[in-house]
Task: inverse folding
């Protein structure tokens, strides 16, 4: 079984260039460079890594990393 939180955290670290300082509670305001374009790339990278399609609301309504993790779990049928 895939640890979704670990995969999303790894992808976050690759895309942003540093691990999420507040874990799942990390928000774009906490991270230099987590702008709208980077957010789209982050979501796309999570989808590619996990082989899923996240709900489109993730692009506009995700204000914390744990919400991306929740969406990924849901897309994998785990949440």
Result:
């Amino acid at each position: 079984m895939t640890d979704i939180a670990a995969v999303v955290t790894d992808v976050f670290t690759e895309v942003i260039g540093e691990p999420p300082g507040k874990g799942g509670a990390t928000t774009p305001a906490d991270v230099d460079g987590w702008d709208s374009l980077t957010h789209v790339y982050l979501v796309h990278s999570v989808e590619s890594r996990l082989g899923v399609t996240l709900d489109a609301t993730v692009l506009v309504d995700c204000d914390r990393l744990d919400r991306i993790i929740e969406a990924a779990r849901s897309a994998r049928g785990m949440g």
